[in-house]
């Protein structure tokens, strides 16, 4: 007995457990063609959000379709340790317990970190299961598990030995809250309102014409860094300051002297045309400092407070010091004025703290040599970016690639395998034991022990582990020729977000070429950003993002999946509206109700098939034509369009048209539907089965439920591994004929609605056509669908309301039930419109430039419009004559 209403909550957990119990997502190498996807590993700190929902639904659609196509589908799940984000979570957890990180040893802290990971790290993967993600959960990986950890260490050592990793002092992005360097890609630029502070510096030994001390005024948004100034710079072409060249300025409040230098870098039209040069706290100033051989004075601690080198306001936070120094400058007579100023400020993606440019001793990876194969692989389409518009962005990044700062001042992560002797010698090795062996071999220091070696405190950038992901999940670094890596690599498709195209996708491509000699995947599908109705990116902080699990509870996983994909073309943002998910839920209900209807029919081997065979032929042709279209859409990664085609096929063509065509008449005496013939019923059940297989990648739960109920199945059978429907031959003529049929039915129904006639009122139909035979086969269907009492053929105009379908004219005799004057007015209104339309089309075709330059098919289309308008105008004129004569 099929339930009256579809209840996703009752079936989703049941079928997901069934799939797991029967190991339907399990993959091991065999003789089949592999199809592999590795999940973009979500952070262990994460919970399911709308972006994850979109991304993982697309991955699941691709993997389920491949599995049904007979490929060995392997979707590898896993999580990323997320150094900065996880360490911040652990620090917060410890704070709640009254514990400070600095009071713990490294090992004690890491014990707490693993405790946190074990408790919270798997949440997002369990949530993906609720979405229906068909991952091979036995293959779940974590970037800090032993094998993957060791892979990172081995790669570091290998690249170091190749001369591609070095240690040096460079200007980096410093997160004072996380107390670590972060990459350019982890810096989010925000426009903020700041004070532009005008500060005057005294010129040593210089007075004005009136004998007053001379000053130069500098405008800055960072007055708290004046104590780190190394020079004042002016443009050599700025005549206002020519007399100051070579002189010395005195920093206010601390009275330290700095030279006045000249450089064309200084913009004469910004502020006062003078620039304070602070090499330790600005990347551009740092470059100027190197050029002019200026000293570097760092006055900030790692946490963003002022240190002793600042001389004043020591220990104060940089922003508190900014307010304080403005007041001090004012009291000392060095503050000229302040102005409101909008500035772009970099903030840390992970902590939200304002980034501090900082000179720091870090580890770097040389990227120029490594990047070239990865650039070529995308430019020559070895790797396809979908959509291809992102190729230019990718090329711009890769052609201007900078060395990668790979060290982070954290404890949670893969610890840098560098060991130091007391004399500062650096030994890079896979372990302390190996480092000791190197020391003993290279330096002949045989008395030295491991206790004499100190390991680098830093860990590696999270991306330095995840760039190996397509290789390391198959242990391809540790065992370069193991069966898994040889079978599953390269993977097929990667689904991810454009914002990590450079610092994850590009780096994975680099690692693929470096360690496997080929690209790690064939296609990169770049999703858009899920936005709200106002166009804002959905986020917790804005409070504009629904909880995906709440949506699943309310609308079902199938409803959410289809709702997310109804309008999400690759590379374009998804304007999310909960009505989309409601539409997805309604689609599930439509399918359920259609199945209940078909299953409710009584089948008889003696029932008259009537015109049902023709309807079956039509839907078979329609299904095959749509299957060919869907396969083409999938090949172009137009996933959203493929879903729309499935939606239209099921909702419109199957439910609204086909089932209405074959639905048995209702027997009022018996109080039930008449029996349906066996052949039509069997064909309909087969259609339903193929439609469920077609929809399964998008709607896995309801399709499994119905597929299991369509016919008897063996234990362990599943739609998951049923064949994905393939397109057969298409009878194009029957598609054309049925388009005409539906056009006739639609026009007659519109006439009824316009004239406010009951659907039960039978109406006669006359057809003027040169192909009577074509319509004679459709007669039973026209009568059934449009409630037509009789169909006649005529060579002349006939009584009734007329409409045209191509060259054929149709007349519906309303038997005097309509207002003749209103009919004349309506016909005249339509005639006026068509006359105007004809004139505009004729004008376009009379334009020689248009005819000469437009595509031939476009010109032909306009000529066809003109011919159609002429035919309709002639018919309307005849109609008006007839109406006027009879009125």
Features of the shown structure:
four-stranded antiparallel beta sheet; alpha/beta; 887 residues; globular
Can you give a write-up of this model?
With 887 residues, the chain is α/β, with parallel strands linked by helices. 44% of the residues lie in helices and 18% in strands. It contains 28 helices and 33 strands. The strands form 11 sheets. Strands 7, 8, 9, 10, 11, 12 and 13 form a 7-stranded mixed sheet that branches. α9 crosses α15. The model has no long low-confidence stretch (mean pLDDT 92).
Give a short overview:
By secondary structure, this protein is α/β, with parallel strands linked by helices. The protein is globular and about 110 Å long.
| Unreliably modeled segments | none
Q: How many helical stretches?
A: 28
Radius of gyration: 37 Å
Terminal residue distance: 59 Å
Write the SSE topology.
Elements: H1 8-21, E1 34-38, H2 50-68, E2 72-76, E3 78-79, H3 83-96, H4 106-120, H5 123-131, E4 141-142, H6 146-161, E5 165-175, E6 180-182, E7 187-207, E8 213-220, E9 231-234, E10 248-250, E11 257-262, E12 274-277, H7 283-292, H8 318-331, E13 335-348, E14 356-365, H9 368-379, E15 384-386, H10 390-399, E16 404-405, E17 407-408, E18 418-420, E19 426-428, H11 432-443, E20 454-455, E21 459-460, H12 463-466, H13 469-472, H14 483-488, E22 493-496, H15 501-516, E23 523-526, E24 530-531, H16 548-555, H17 557-565, E25 574-575, H18 578-600, E26 603-604, H19 612-635, H20 639-662, E27 666-667, E28 672-673, E29 676-677, H21 678-695, H22 700-710, H23 732-755, E30 763-768, H24 772-776, H25 779-786, E31 788-793, E32 801-805, E33 808-812, H26 820-845, H27 848-853, H28 856-886
Parallel strand pairs: 1-2, 3-4, 9-11, 15-23, 22-23, 24-25, 26-29, 30-31
Antiparallel strand pairs: 5-6, 5-14, 7-8, 7-10, 7-13, 9-12, 10-11, 14-16, 17-21, 18-19, 18-20, 27-28, 30-33, 32-33
Helix pairs in contact: 1-22, 3-4, 9-10, 9-15, 16-17, 17-18, 18-20, 19-20, 19-21, 19-23, 20-21, 21-22, 23-25, 26-28
């Amino acid at each position: 007995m099929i339930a009256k209403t579809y209840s996703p909550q009752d079936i989703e957990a049941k079928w997901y457990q069934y799939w797991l119990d029967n190991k339907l997502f399990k993959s091991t190498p065999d003789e089949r063609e592999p199809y592999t996807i590795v999940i973009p590993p979500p952070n262990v700190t994460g919970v399911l959000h709308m972006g994850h929902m979109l991304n993982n639904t697309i991955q699941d659609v691709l993997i389920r379709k491949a599995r049904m196509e007979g490929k060995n589908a392997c979707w590898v799940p896993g999580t990323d340790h997320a150094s900065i984000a996880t360490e911040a979570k652990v620090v917060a957890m410890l704070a709640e317990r009254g514990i400070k990180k600095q009071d713990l040893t490294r090992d004690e802290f890491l014990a707490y970190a693993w405790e946190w990971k074990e408790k919270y790290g798997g949440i997002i993967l369990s949530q993906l299961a609720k979405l229906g993600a068909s991952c091979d959960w036995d293959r779940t990986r974590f970037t800090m598990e032993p094998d993957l950890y060791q892979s990172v260490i081995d790669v570091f050592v290998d690249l170091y030995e190749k001369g591609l990793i070095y240690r040096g002092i460079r200007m980096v992005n410093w997160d004072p809250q996380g107390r670590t360097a972060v990459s350019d890609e982890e810096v989010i630029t925000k426009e903020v309102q700041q004070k532009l502070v005008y500060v005057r510096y005294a010129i040593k030994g210089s007075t004005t014409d009136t004998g007053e001390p001379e000053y130069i005024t500098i405008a800055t948004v960072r007055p708290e860094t004046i104590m780190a100034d190394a020079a004042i710079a002016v443009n050599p072409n700025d005549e206002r300051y020519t007399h100051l060249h070579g002189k010395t300025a005195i920093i206010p409040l601390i009275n330290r002297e700095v030279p006045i230098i000249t450089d064309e870098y200084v913009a004469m039209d910004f502020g006062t045309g003078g620039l304070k040069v602070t090499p330790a706290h600005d990347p551009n100033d740092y470059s100027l400092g190197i050029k002019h051989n200026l000293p570097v004075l760092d006055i900030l601690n790692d946490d963003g407070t002022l240190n002793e080198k600042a001389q004043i306001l020591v220990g104060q936070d940089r922003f508190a010091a900014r307010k304080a120094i403005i007041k001090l400058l004012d009291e000392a007579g060095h503050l000229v004025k302040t102005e409101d100023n909008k500035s772009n400020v970099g903030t840390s993606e992970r902590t939200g703290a304002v980034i501090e440019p900082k000179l720091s001793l870090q580890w770097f990876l040389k990227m120029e040599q490594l990047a070239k194969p990865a650039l070529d692989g995308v430019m020559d389409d070895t790797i396809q970016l979908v959509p291809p518009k992102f190729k230019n962005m990718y090329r711009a990044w890769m052609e201007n690639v900078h060395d990668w700062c790979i060290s982070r001042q954290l404890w949670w992560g893969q610890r840098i395998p560098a060991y130091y002797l007391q004399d500062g010698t650096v030994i890079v090795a896979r372990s302390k034991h190996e480092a000791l062996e190197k020391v003993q071999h290279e330096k002949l220091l045989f008395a030295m022990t491991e206790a004499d070696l100190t390991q680098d405190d830093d860990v590696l950038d999270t991306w330095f582990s995840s760039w190996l992901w397509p290789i390391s999940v198959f242990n391809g670094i540790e065992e370069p020729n193991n069966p898994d890596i040889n079978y599953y690599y390269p993977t097929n498709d990667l689904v991810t977000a454009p914002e990590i195209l450079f610092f994850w996708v590009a780096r994975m491509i680099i690692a693929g070429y470096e360690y496997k000699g080929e690209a790690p995947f064939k296609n990169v599908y770049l999703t858009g950003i899920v936005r709200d109705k106002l166009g804002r990116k959905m986020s917790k902080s804005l409070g504009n993002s629904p909880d995906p699990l709440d949506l699943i509870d309310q609308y079902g996983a199938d409803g959410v999946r289809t709702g997310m994909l109804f309008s999400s073309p690759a590379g374009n943002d998804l304007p999310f509206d909960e009505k989309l998910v409601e539409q997805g839920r309604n689609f599930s209900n439509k399918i359920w109700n259609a199945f209940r209807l078909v299953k409710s029919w009584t089948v008889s081997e003696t029932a008259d098939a009537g015109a049902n065979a023709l309807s079956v032929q039509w839907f078979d042709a329609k299904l095959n034509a749509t299957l060919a279209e869907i396969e083409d859409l999938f090949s172009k990664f137009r996933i959203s369009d493929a879903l729309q085609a499935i939606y239209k096929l099921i909702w419109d063509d199957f439910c609204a048209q086909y089932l209405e065509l074959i639905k048995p008449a209702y027997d009022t005496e018996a109080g039930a539907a008449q029996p349906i013939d066996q052949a039509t019923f069997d064909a309909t059940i087969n259609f339903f089965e193929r439609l469920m297989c077609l929809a399964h990648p998008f709607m896995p739960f309801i399709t499994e439920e119905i597929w299991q109920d369509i016919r008897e199945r063996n234990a362990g059978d599943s739609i998951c591994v049923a064949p994905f429907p393939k397109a057969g031959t298409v009878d194009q003529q029957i598609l054309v004929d049925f388009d005409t049929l539906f056009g006739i039915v639609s026009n007659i129904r519109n006439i009824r609605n316009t004239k406010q006639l009951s659907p039960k009122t039978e109406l006669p139909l006359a057809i003027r056509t040169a192909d009577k035979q074509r319509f004679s086969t459709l007669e039973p269907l026209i009568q059934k669908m449009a409630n037509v009492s009789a169909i006649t053929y005529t060579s002349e105009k006939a009584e009734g309301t007329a409409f045209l379908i191509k060259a054929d004219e149709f007349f519906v005799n309303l038997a005097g039930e309509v207002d003749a004057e209103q009919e004349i007015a309506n016909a005249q209104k339509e005639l006026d419109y068509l006359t105007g339309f004809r004139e505009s089309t004729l004008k376009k075709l009379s334009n020689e430039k248009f005819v000469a330059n437009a595509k031939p098919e476009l010109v032909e289309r306009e000529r066809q419009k003109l011919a159609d308008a002429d035919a309709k105008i002639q018919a309307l004129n005849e109609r008006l004559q007839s109406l006027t004569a009879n009125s």
